[in-house]
Structure formats: structure tokens, C-alpha cells
Amino acid sequence: MQGCEDSFVFSGWPVMRPNWGMTHLKNVTPEMPMPVIRSCKQCGQKNRIAANHLSDTGRCGACKSSLPAVDSPLQVDATLFDEIIQSSRVPVLVDFWAEWCGPCRAAAPEVERTAREMAGSAIVLKVDTDKEQQLAARYQVRGIPNFAVFSAGKLVKQQAGVVGHDVMETWLRSAALAASA
Ligand SMILES: [Zn+2]
């Protein structure tokens, strides 16, 4: 992804970057690819984290204090989804959800808890199926919530319906074990 490696600091989130040079492309959604931005808890600096380092402990570019592995679900668009699925070194749990879906709201705290408890060993993504209809169609998501687990870029598990964080964590640990076997 060109343009992601410089020291440009976003003033907010989400933001669009001007001059991305993609205006000649037709049928491209206006949502530009972007790295994950994390604010430093010490100094507030917004740090860009590459997709393949989300599960690592990093260091703030400004104050050098440590930036722990991502420990909450990341809301992603199709571009960021693909980038994280392809480059993650740990299993990825995806929660396909929608605003109007009651069971999705019931599942949300379980998804958040999974992200917290599996920080460093897994990544948790949330896909809004109203906004990302093509992504939902790609994985034949009909009923939501719908959970998918990816390991080394491949879909290894998919299941619709609310489950507890313990079940989600079991899926992720099994995926990690299978990957290392
Ligand atoms: Zn800092």
C-alpha cells in the first residue's frame, strides 16, 4: 500500500487522505486503504500500525513507550479486511454484524472480551454487513451474527449465531494449533 510508510500523522480517525492518486480508477469505493491507527496511551500520538504487526507489541514513534498488541475489535472495510487476513501472523476472528441486529448486539461483548483475552495471539475484526455487502456475499453470510476464523489467509471455520467468548477463543486456539502443526 503506497503512501502508508511515511511519517504523516492523522489528525483524526477515520480520515481520508488527499492526493491519493486513485481518482482515475472507476468503481473504486471512496474509502481509501488505510493502516490501523492507534493512539499512544502515554502521549496521545497517533501511530500507524501495519497489518502484519497488529498482534505485536510496538513502540510509540513519539515518546517510545510501548504500544501493546491490539486488544479490541477493529471495524474494517473490505480493503483493510483483505490486508489483515493476508498478512496476519496470528488467527483472525471476523464478526459479520449489522446495526439493526439484536443478536449481534448480544454477541458484541463476547467479541470484545475475546479480543481482550486473545490480544497478541489473535486479531478480531468486525465487518458491518450493510456497508460491506460484497464482503458479506463473498463469505455467503446470510444470517448474522456470523463468525469466521481465518488462519494463514484461509477460512478455517465459519458459523452463524451467537456464541460465548469461550467458544470463540477455542476456535482461535484450534486454528493456531493447526497452523503450527
Ligand atoms: Zn507516545
Explain what you see.
The protein has 181 residues and is an alpha/beta fold. It has a domain at 74-180: 3-Layer(aba) Sandwich (Glutaredoxin), CATH 3.40.30. The protein contains four helices and nine strands; from the N terminus they run E-E-E-E-E-H-E-H-E-H-E-E-H. The protein has helices at 78-87, 102-117, 133-138, 165-180; strands at 36-39, 46-49, 58-59, 66-67, 74-75, 92-97, 123-128, 146-151, 154-160. The strands form three sheets. The protein has a five-stranded mixed β-sheet with strand order 5-7-6-8-9, with helices on both faces. A two-stranded antiparallel sheet has the order 1-2. Strands 3-4 form a two-stranded antiparallel sheet. Helix 2 links the parallel strand 6 and strand 7 (123-128). Helix 2 packs across helix 4. The longest helix has 16 residues, at 102-117. The protein is globular. 29% of the residues are buried. The structure holds zinc ion.
List keywords for this structure.
Glutaredoxin; 27% helix; alpha/beta; 181 residues; two-stranded antiparallel ribbon
Would you kindly provide a brief summary of this structure?
By secondary structure, the protein is α/β, with parallel strands linked by helices.
